[in-house]
Write a structure and sequence with these properties.
By secondary structure, the chain is of the alpha+beta class. The chain contains six helices and four strands, in the order H-E-E-E-E-H-H-H-H-H. The model has no long low-confidence stretch (mean pLDDT 78).
Length: 121
């Protein structure tokens, strides 16, 4: 079974790099990374996928922080938001945290949280 999958991946997706660990397959996509001297190179780091990033942004939009939560205190909103953000950072930010930063910036976007904080302050 593993041989068949490996053969299929090699034939169907020759440009996609993957690695097998026991029964799990991890697919790496090339990413631009910076070394300690500030020079860029191509690396195969695990990071958040575009699909997962879009799902997180959709969840943040569904919270409707600026539109429907203006009667809640900052502590109540933090109680709603913090468990999810903490989970996302621990899961998706485990190996390549900076790839998660643009996704979480959506939380501080003008259309969501900051307008509410300014009005509440």
């Amino acid at each position: 079974m593993h041989y068949a999958f490996d053969l299929w991946m090699t034939r169907s997706y020759p440009d996609i790099h993957f690695a097998r660990y026991a029964d799990e397959v991890i697919i790496f996509r090339p990413r631009r990374a910076k070394n300690r001297w500030g020079k860029y190179f191509v690396s195969f780091l695990p990071a958040i996928s575009d699909k997962a990033a879009n799902a997180i942004r959709e969840t943040i939009r569904e919270w409707r922080l600026a539109a429907t939560r203006n009667n809640q205190t900052l502590e109540e909103i933090a109680g709603l938001v913090n468990p999810s953000v903490r989970g996302w950072v621990n899961y998706y930010g485990r190996f390549y945290r900076s790839a998660l930063t643009p996704v979480l910036r959506h939380l501080a976007d003008r259309d969501s949280t900051s307008d509410w904080i300014i009005r509440a302050g």
